[in-house]
Every structure is written in C-alpha cells, then in structure tokens.
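Hey,
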Amino acid sequence: MQYKEPEYNPFDAPVPGQSLTDEPGNYPWENPPQYPKVSDGFLWVFNQMHKEPQLTQLISLLDTGVPVEALTKTLLFTGFLEGKWNPDLMMLLMEPTMFMIMALAEKASSNSSIKRFTYILAGDGDLQEPIALGASTLAGHWKLSNLIMFYDKNDIQIAGNTSRVDSTDYAMLYDAMGWHVQEIDGHNHEEIRKALRNAQSNDKPSIIIGKTVIAKGSYSLENSPKSHGSPFSEDEIKLTKEKLEIPQDSFFCNEDIINHFQRNFNLLNDKVAEIDKEFEKNYYDEDQMFDSLKVPDFGNDLMATRQAFGKSLDEFAKKFPHIIGGSADLDGSNCTSNFAKIYHDFSSSNPKGRNIAFGVREFPMGAIMNGIALYGCHFPFGGTFLVFSDYVRSAIRLSAIQKLHVMYEFTHDSIFVGEDGPTHQPVEHTMSLRNIPNLLVFRPADALETFHCFKTIMKNKKNPSAILLTRQKLPNLNISEDKIEEGVNKGAYILHEEDNPDAILFTSGSEANLAVEICSLINKRIQIINLPCWELFEKQNKEYISLILNENCKKRISLEAGITAGWQRFTGIDGLNIGINEFGESAPGKDVAKHLGFVKEKITTLIEDYLDE
C-alpha cells in the first residue's frame, strides 16, 4: 500500500493503549504486550524525549509501506502516518506518569484472568522530574504488578553528566516506594530477558535499571552529552558506519534483522484479536444512560455550586459506571466524599474501586487522568482548589493537545474563598485556563446550571473540560430549566432580555445573580448575558453569536470576580470591565470583597457613571 496523507485525526477520540518496549516482536515472555486496536491498527506510546529517530526505525521495521522520503520529511510534522497496518502513531512527552497509570486503567477495566503488562522506557531526565516520584509512590502503594519500567541509566543529560545535578540512589528509592528492583547491564540481552521474567512473576511494580552507554558504538560520541539531544554530523555518521562495518546507504537495514524483528507478528495479531473482543465487552449505551438521568433535588435554599456538583456526581456515577476519579486530598471541600463512600477507593485489594485517593499530588493527578483517558474504558475526573490549577497546568495542556475526555473539578473559584488568604484566593486563574486551546472552561451560576454543565461535559468527548465552582452559597437563577440547558449547550444565553437595550452586561458564575440584582437597581435597560462556557459559545453559528453580542448596542460591560483582561473580546476597548486585578487579603470573603470594592454599591455606581458618560 502506498503512503498517503491521513484523512482523519486519530487524536479525536481516546482509545485503549499500553506502553511498549523498544523491541516489539522480540518477546521472551509468554503473554507479549498487545497493539491495542485503533481503527484496526495500533497505538505506540513513548515517554522518553528525543525518540524521533527510534520511531522512524520502528516504522521501517514494521513494514508499513511508508517510503523513506515520507519518514524523513513528514514524521516530525504529523506525528502519525498511515501505512499497511494503518497505524496511528502518537508521541507523548509527559514523563512516565501517564503510562504508569495505564496499568491502573488495565487493572480497573480487565475482567480477564490473563495478566497483561504495561511497559515503560524511561531515561535519567524522566525520573528527575518530581511528577515521576508522585506517580511512582502511588504505583507502589497500589501494587501495580502489571507495570514494568525499563530505566535506561546512561548518566548523561543535555547539560552534561547527571552527577552534576543528582546523586539519588534510584534502586534504594524505588525499593522504599514498594517496587521490585533489578539492576542489570542494559546492553546484555540475556540479562534483559531474565529481568523481564523476574518482573512478570513479581507481585509489585517493577523497575529494571539498565546501566548503558549513550551512543554506544559511535565513532567519537560515546558517553558524550552531545549525543543526547543533537543529531550526528554527516562525518560522524560516515565514520560510525565505517567503524561498525555497515553500508553507507541511508536508512539501511539488513533483511535478516527485519525478519527477526517480525517473527512474532502472527502471534501478536492473534493476541490483538483476543484483546479487541474483551474491550468490546466494555461498551456502554450512553444514549440510554443520558435518557435515564434525573436532575437531583437541589431544594430552594442557597447552595454552593461545589455542593451541586457533589449531588450531580452522585447521579451521574449511578448511571455511568465508567466514571472514575477523586480528589487531591480535598474530598470534603470538593464534595466528592459521598462518591468515595459509595464506590470505595481503588487499591491493590479492590481494583474495581472507582474513587482514586490521589493524596496531595495535583500534578500527578492530572497526568493520571490523562493516562486513564488514553487507555479508554473510563471517564476520569479529578478535584482540587482552583488556585492549585497552576500545579496541574502542564497536564491540562497535554489533555488539550490530545483532546482527551477528562474533567478537572476546581472549587473555591474566587476571592470569596475568604480566610485562607491571597495564596488560596484565585484571581488570574479563570482567565488563564480560558487561554488554553481546546480546553472547555465551565463556570456555572447556580445548582441547576452546574448539573447541565456536568451533562454537557460528558457529551463533549473531543475536549477536556474544567468546571469552576464556588465555595459560597448562591441563589437559584429565576429562569426555566430548558433555557438553562440550551444556554449551557451553546455556552452563552440571554439571562435578562430588554428591547432596544441601553447596555449589555456579560457575566458568568457567581456574578450572574449579582448582575441581575444590580441591574434591577439601575434606571436603564440593561440586557444580561450569562456565559457559562466561552469556548462553546465561540463554536456557535454566526446568527446565534450575533444575537448574543448585539453589536448595535455600544455600551458594553463585563462583571466577573477575577482579572478583567480577556473580557475585551465582548466589551471592546471602550467597554467597562469590572473585576479584581489585584490579590486578596486574609479575611472572610465578604470583607475581602468590600476591601477590593467588589460589592453591589460600588459596582452599581461604576455602571451608572459609565452609562452617563
């Protein structure tokens, strides 16, 4: 089959997947790792940096039919190529964490008696990243015995020898974290095979520390940092080939090597078929699940949207058995305690537990969610305070790059957090999240809107989502449920309508009710637009966007308890943007708001003065 440009984007849907070793096809173990089905193909996952050359070699050895010129020109741009096996190739550079958690997803999903393994290739830099420590601790705690990590320990990184920056004894460290540890000569094939067999029979996650020489066999760059992140020069390539006594042809590969590499392919295809059948058993009729949903009884009293989220989570978890997740040590604050009580913690003795007790590990939590989504079969969520979204940001960004179906629950979404002070009072965070491409950011205004934001998140499978929730209690919006549901699905709606308005006020979240109250006190026709999700609104057709924006009205106002930068896309440069552009104070939320001038009386005066200009 001739190479052609792919007609679709394989990143559009999460799929089951596992990390593989550097030698697919050369498996000494009884149950080799599988190429999980991706459009009748397979998924490669790498965590180690600078793997483009190796990926090129693998595509050639896999006999995909992709010509050399395509490999040299398009691989770095597309990241995936279509060939004889229709492979969807994905490079993910997020340290070992996501791939460790594929082992968790496998344990949580599998109904098979066959033990399937997740394999990781990690380097020195991967384990230097603090996130690897957090994930490794959890892997040991959960006894993920189906996880095997190869640590290519060549003691070289971009800036020089690792001894300049690190003196950790990783064998002792991983032993202390509850891992099975082996140290071997990373160039000795027999030692590698023996270590694999030992790892597969152990009841702990395993790390195989292979002492290696970087650029082994090269003419002049063995053990050199220059070989870590830079390509060999033409002279180095020529002299290295002379030293190794191989032809000078570009992309040369001996037929004996190709045949040896591919000798187990028939066996692997049979294994893939078995795995495909098992994954088909995990099919869920989501249309039926959505139809069975019932809006929780939120009552008529004031309710924080974080509390409404907890009640909504209980309803969704009851109807959607593949929801899995938890909180970063904030179960009560994030209102996930009832979920944990009903569905119990995931653990080595309870792999079907649906609550993941992440501990104080926000960044690993985000990466863990990504790993679960990549594996498939589950919809992961994770909760913490909005101010701690900074810790999670790199994982969120990777969720967005890969368009993974995950949900970040961020509570305590403004200065109304109160007494915890400016370190815990988010100001810039909401707008910061809105600046991440592909991420849907929801900020519901009341309990009912929270439920429908949750529902919309569940339906939007091609994007990660963040839902921002209040600590303080809010009244219910005085509009119909149908209007709220339609408005959430479209990202924006008219909360209060006026004929020929004097001004338009844009708002979101806890400020929606405040906006209604303030506008009722002003002797002007002010139309109020509630924007629970900017990103969904911007995807609507031109007619709806025009209806909401109403460009004939020149007086335009925004109101949100956060920084004002960004609202100009709705108000223009001559609009009035009311928000909080400084850090808060250590005091009750209402006192902080008064100190910052973010109260009804001050806001009313600002709007009146603006309209009188």
